[in-house]
Design goal:
CATH class of the largest domain: Alpha Beta
Family: Belongs to the tetrahydrofolate dehydrogenase/cyclohydrolase family.
Number of helices: 10
Keywords: Amino-acid biosynthesis, Histidine biosynthesis, Hydrolase, Methionine biosynthesis, Multifunctional enzyme, NADP, One-carbon metabolism, Oxidoreductase, Purine biosynthesis
Largest sheet: 5 strands, parallel
CATH topology of the largest domain: Rossmann fold
Order of helices and strands: HEHEHEHHHEHEHEEEEHEH
CATH superfamily of the largest domain: Leucine Dehydrogenase, chain A, domain 1
Subunit structure: Homodimer.
Low-confidence stretches: none
Bound molecules: ligand LMY7XDAE
Catalytic activity: (6R)-5,10-methenyltetrahydrofolate + H2O = (6R)-10-formyltetrahydrofolate + H(+); (6R)-5,10-methylene-5,6,7,8-tetrahydrofolate + NADP(+) = (6R)-5,10-methenyltetrahydrofolate + NADPH
CATH architecture of the largest domain: 3-Layer(aba) Sandwich
Pfam family, one: THF_DHG_CYH
Strand content: 15-25%
Number of domains: 2
Length: 306
């Protein structure tokens, strides 16, 4: 069966379109009221998968009526120089959201950069003070890839309460937030990582399996419970047999789709939804800024546009 007509594929595109249409309405109103949303992306160094992400962010931000600017920095920039650039963006009232694309080079402590972003402009909720919100079940602004992955699981209609979920990968931007988001929904969550003794043994028990490790085709059919939902979060660039660069996930899709009831394709699964959620988060951040202006200055909240 071809990719286009297989109902087992859980596609992010249709959900992303719905979200972007709603964001567009919000952004149009906010702009008319003198508060145009503007997202600034910070990229450090050259990484092909990140370039794909940023290209899609720009295209979808334009569709949603959100201003988008990319600031690119050389891989040998210092952490101090980057922090100074971020402080400049924090102080600029025209900038309403900041995203730091990951990964950054090893000499830059990512936590220091995230902590430099003003929490009100933190569109990923990755400031150390913001990431704790999901521990407290405040879920309206969560890290985008994690939120997109959970949103796709919800599309299956499975009851999340008590669902056996296994997350392979425990990064702070994807695996850990997924675990917290799912616990908030009542799922029973197991997180596997590089010290887990048998990832396969855990994975085979899962009603829903999330994979985010950056290892092409790590998960094979014999690691998946029949009827499970498999959410593939891997974005790995590789050269295909035709000599062209292509993106593949962490799941061996062709074999796993014979066992799973749902599987996210790569590309076309979590990726498009990640971008849509980033734009939705951008509006959540903007609305928090507006609420603060209102609380501080009364009704006038047109400062950003002036
Ligand atoms: N600050 C962050 N950095 C990173 C995150 C994140 O959530 N926040 N996650 C990944 C992002 N990423 C890979 O580096 C990535 C995300 C989304 C897409 C994407 O749009 N994919 C689409 C389109 C593919 C295409 O046009 O060929 C899809 O999968 O269908 C690409 C990459 C790491 N960094």
């Amino acid at each position: 069966m071809s990719r286009s007509d297989d109902s087992r594929y859980l596609r992010g595109g249709p959900v992303a379109q719905r979200i972007i249409a709603a964001v567009r309405e919000d952004a149009t109103i906010a702009t008319a009221e003198g508060f145009p949303p503007k997202l600034v992306s910070i990229t450090v160094g050259d990484i092909a998968a990140v370039d794909v992400y940023v290209r899609n962010q720009r295209a979808k931000a334009e569709l949603a009526g959100i201003g988008f600017e990319e600031r690119r920095f050389a891989a040998d920039i210092t952490a101090g120089e980057l922090e100074a650039a971020i402080h400049g963006l924090n102080a600029d009232p025209r900038v309403t959201g900041i995203i730091i694309q990951r990964p950054v080079p090893a000499h830059i402590p990512i936590k220091t950069l995230q902590a430099a972003v003003h929490p009100l402009k933190d569109v990923e909720g990755m400031h150390p003070a913001s990431i704790g919100n999901i521990v407290y079940n405040q879920l309206d602004l969560a890290p985008c890839t994690a939120a997109a992955s959970v949103e796709l699981l919800k599309e299956t209609g499975l009851d999340l309460k008590g669902l056996e979920v296994v997350v392979v990968g425990h990064s702070e931007i994807v695996g850990k937030p997924i675990a917290f988001l799912l616990m908030s929904e009542g799922a029973t969550v197991t997180v596997c990582h590089h010290m887990t003794r048998s990832v396969a043994a855990h994975a085979r028990r899962a009603d829903a399996l999330f994979v985010a490790v950056g290892k092409p085709r790590l998960i094979k059919a014999d690691m998946v419970k029949p009827g499970a939902c498999v959410i593939d979060i891997g974005i790995n660039a590789e050269i295909g047999p035709d000599g062209e660069s292509r993106i593949v996930g962490d799941v061996d899709t062709e074999s796993v789709k014979e066992v799973a009831s749902w599987i996210t394709p790569v590309p076309g699964g979590v990726g498009p939804l990640t971008v849509a959620i980033l734009l939705r988060n951008t509006m959540v951040a903007l609305n928090r800024q507006r609420a603060l202006y209102r609380a501080t200055f009364g009704v006038a909240d047109t400062l950003a546009a002036e």
